[in-house]
Design a protein that fits this description.
The chain has about 90 residues and is mostly helical. It has a domain of about 60 residues. The chain contains 3 helices and no strands. Helix 2 crosses helix 3. The radius of gyration is 27 Å and the shape is elongated. It starts with 7 loop residues before the first helix and ends with a helix.
Amino acid sequence: MKEDEYEMKDHYDFSKGRRGSVIPPQPGKIKITIRIDGDILEWFRNKVDAAGGGNYQTVMNAALRQYIETQEGILEATLRRVIREELKCGQQQ
């Protein structure tokens, strides 16, 4: 290495530096590592690019949230149907 490459230590004081992200994470967000199929990730990235930019992770989060809400609606409808059927059976006896 050249001698002038070591001069950075003379100009910067990192003694009070901290590891981690510079920008704190948004409340409610949790950083994880997951494996996503390449074609799925590419689809989300392409959707974001086609929309003019943005964050594919936000789009994936929205898709997962929509799926969960749809599933909860199906579960609620099923429970209501079963309860109605049981109430009818109970009234007939």
